């Protein structure tokens, strides 16, 4: 087996706490949740029946496919209802039972739910008697049965290979997303009996196998024929289909010869997903094993396993271009390298974008910047910034040199390599016009180089790129981006799914990352909202990096789902402006900690039923000075029939504002007193960078009964400030 470096995933988030603010959102799995979709893909031109598992999926009415054209879906409507008669008992008895308090966050069979309740009683001393146990089990088992739906997905013969997102529309609103892949390979499904080495499932390569390690100690064996010298790869996707699976699915691959000798194994190449790169030593029949490292199993342990003479580490050369362009690129990798393909770049793309190729999706840098070309060496003319440069390290001791002309001091530089699936361990050297060395930086592990102040003063500079380990190859591609002080910013919006019942309000958190002289206010808008849904005006001010948008559904709003977006607009000094679209981020729970996962779509939905409660405050405005406190009373008004807890939280607050005494409000209570404190960092209370900025405000959210709802805005102003409603 050829040894290759383990590639760690470049997270879509640097630190969840920095995105969610000082108080993370608690109800991370309250929306309808797709925990598994199987099979998670199909070959172009085929139709497959898929099973969808999850929580709060009862009442699913519609399946939505988001992505390139050519994939359509139809839901098989089933009249499977949840037995709600024991739900109040479950809410009363199980809110403190760790393994059963959030059934929507777990994918278990009905039998596994019964065993889980028994474990809580016998091992955790849950205060549940025999009669109560039986009623709770009935409720959880009926929820599990209602939480599985089926659908038919049709893939057109001309459908572009790559990933789509699947969501369901239910009575409770839109579900979380799950990927569905379109491939060009023959596809097969893992079939029992294949759990013993003496009974492997025979497959013909190349093939893409869809499987599930559905129960503890489950194993899938596959037998195949290979010729001596044949270069084969075995590439399993599990984590890359569902990042949340890392808590229960750690797939491992073992490759055996006909005598049962282990020839190769892998546990983790693309993060938790294994890859085996192997050359057959002789003609013969070989066996591949898929299992969980810890012998766990779950219906959500879904995988797609590509087997054959197939590339798995494809990088594209050149690796960057402008949005809307048609680019001729060459695929580079261990297998299938050298093939030229045409790639059409999306018009609205910005940043790392996955583009379809015959070898599957590959990362490509899309930036609306002038083309700086490739390295020209010491004698080439200086290229004025801003520009996007491209290169490739293909020889030993190669050092690419770029001569750049900087007009504005303080300009930053960013190198893209690992994010482009390049193995380049970049070494960056910067010299001034007199060849005086100014900076030498080496990439840290799997991270690329980002220098915010690469060029401290105007003038000409030399930028030298090489590999720190003196390695090279056709896939050692990279891009250099330098903006020369050109203003720019990016946005992230969480959650990626806003579902609201008629008469309800939910909060959306939008954060901005400003780059190079972006100091003005960013105005946020949400196009394509469902009828009856409105959004509060929102601005990310110069003295904050975030804003909350409140989305409200009118009392008579009809159930609907729309694929929307969050756009931010910035007006530049001297005229012109910048518009950027926010990256949607799904919030999910990992060991009771919030984490974020980038999604392709942002959806807004109106649920069928009004929300089970409302959140109101006893004031709309607080007047504070630094180091001063004030109390706010929160009232939970429950609808008849709802007897669950409501957990209070704050998605984000203005700088320097602390919110204390956040807690659960039990069914017998309806009020809580929060202490709001302005610390020394609340400088906005005394001065603002611009006149006529809207006031700073935040909202209190409550989570319970399967929904998260928000209060009206709570405006915070300093002394002698006049508040105006957002």
UniProtKB/TrEMBL annotation:
- Species for this entry: uncultured Armatimonadetes bacterium
Where is the signal peptide, in residue numbers? 1-29
- Alphabetized InterPro entries for the sequence: Cyt_c-like_dom_sf (IPR036909), Peptidase_C_arc/bac (IPR007280)
This protein's UniProt keywords: Signal
**Per its record, what are the GO molecular function terms?**
electron transfer activity; heme binding
The name this protein goes by in its record? Peptidase C-terminal archaeal/bacterial domain-containing protein
Q: What positions does the domain Peptidase C-terminal archaeal/bacterial occupy?
A: 218-291
């Amino acid at each position: 087996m050829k040894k290759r470096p383990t590639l760690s995933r470049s997270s879509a988030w640097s630190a969840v706490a920095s995105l969610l603010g000082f108080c993370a959102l608690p109800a991370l799995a309250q929306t309808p949740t797709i925990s598994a979709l199987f099979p998670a893909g199909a070959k172009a031109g085929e139709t497959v029946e898929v099973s969808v598992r999850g929580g709060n999926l009862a009442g699913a009415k519609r399946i939505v496919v988001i992505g390139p054209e050519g994939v359509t879906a139809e839901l098989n409507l089933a009249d499977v209802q949840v037995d709600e008669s024991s739900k109040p008992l479950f809410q009363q008895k199980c809110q403190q039972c760790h393994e059963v308090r959030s059934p929507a966050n777990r994918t278990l069979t009905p039998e596994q739910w019964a065993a889980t309740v028994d474990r809580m009683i016998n091992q955790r001393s849950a205060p549940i008697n025999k009669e109560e146990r039986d009623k709770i089990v009935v409720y959880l088992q009926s929820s599990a049965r209602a939480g599985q739906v089926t659908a038919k997905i049709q893939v057109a013969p001309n459908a572009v290979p790559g990933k789509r997102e699947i969501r369901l529309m239910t009575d409770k609103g839109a579900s979380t997303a799950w990927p569905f892949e379109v491939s060009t390979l023959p596809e097969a499904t893992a079939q029992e009996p294949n759990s013993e080495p003496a009974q492997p499932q025979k497959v013909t390569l190349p093939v893409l196998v869809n499987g599930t390690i559905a129960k503890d100690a489950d194993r899938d064996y596959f037998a195949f024929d290979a010729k001596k010298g044949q270069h084969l790869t075995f590439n399993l996707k599990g984590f890359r289909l569902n990042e949340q699976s890392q808590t229960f699915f750690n797939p491992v691959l073992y490759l055996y010869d006909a005598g049962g000798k282990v020839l190769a194994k892998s546990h983790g190449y693309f993060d938790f997903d294994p890859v085996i790169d192997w050359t057959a030593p002789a003609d013969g029949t070989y066996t591949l094993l898929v299992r969980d490292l810890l012998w766990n199993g779950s219906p959500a342990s879904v995988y797609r396993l590509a087997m054959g003479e197939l590339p798995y580490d494809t990088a594209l050369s050149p690796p960057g271009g402008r949005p809307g362009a048609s680019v001729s690129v060459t695929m580079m990798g261990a297998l299938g390298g050298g093939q030229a393909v045409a790639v059409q770049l999306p018009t609205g793309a910005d940043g790392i974008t996955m583009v379809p190729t015959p070898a599957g999706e590959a990362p490509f840098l899309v930036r609306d910047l002038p083309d700086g070309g490739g390295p020209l060496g010491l004698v080439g003319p200086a290229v004025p910034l801003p520009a996007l440069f491209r290169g490739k390290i293909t020889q030993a001791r190669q050092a690419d040199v770029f001569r750049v002309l900087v007009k504005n001091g303080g300009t930053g530089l960013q190198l893209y390599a690992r994010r482009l699936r390049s193995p380049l361990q970049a070494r960056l050297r910067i010299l001034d016009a007199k060849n005086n060395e100014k900076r030498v930086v080496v990439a840290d592990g799997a991270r690329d180089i980002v220098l915010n102040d690469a060029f401290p003063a105007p003038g000409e500079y030399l930028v030298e790129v090489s590999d720190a380990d003196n390695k090279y190859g056709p896939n050692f591609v990279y891009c250099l981006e330098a903006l020369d002080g050109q203003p720019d910013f990016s946005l992230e919006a969480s959650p990626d799914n806003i579902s609201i019942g008629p008469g309800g309000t939910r909060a959306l958190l939008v954060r901005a990352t400003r780059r190079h002289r972006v100091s003005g206010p960013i105005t946020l808008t949400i196009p394509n909202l469902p009828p009856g849904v409105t959004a509060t005006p929102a601005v990310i001010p110069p003295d904050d990096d975030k804003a909350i948008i409140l989305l409200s559904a009118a009392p008579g709003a009809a159930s609907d789902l729309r694929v929307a977006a969050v756009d931010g607009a910035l007006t530049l000094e001297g005229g012109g402006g910048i518009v950027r679209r926010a990256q949607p981020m799904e919030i999910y729970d990992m060991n009771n900690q919030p984490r974020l996962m980038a999604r392709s779509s942002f959806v807004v939905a109106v649920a069928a039923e009004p929300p089970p409660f409302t959140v109101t405050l006893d004031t709309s405005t607080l007047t504070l000075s630094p180091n001063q406190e004030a109390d706010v009373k929160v009232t939970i008004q429950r609808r008849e029939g709802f007897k669950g807890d409501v957990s209070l939280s704050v998605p984000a607050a203005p700088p320097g504002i602390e919110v204390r005494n956040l807690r659960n409000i039990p069914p017998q209570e309806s009020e809580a007193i929060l202490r709001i404190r302005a610390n020394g960092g609340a400088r906005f209370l005394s001065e603002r960078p611009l006149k006529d900025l809207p006031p700073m405000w935040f909202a209190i959210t409550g989570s319970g009964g399967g929904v998260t709802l928000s209060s009206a805005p709570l405006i915070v102003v300093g002394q002698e400030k006049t508040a105006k409603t957002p």
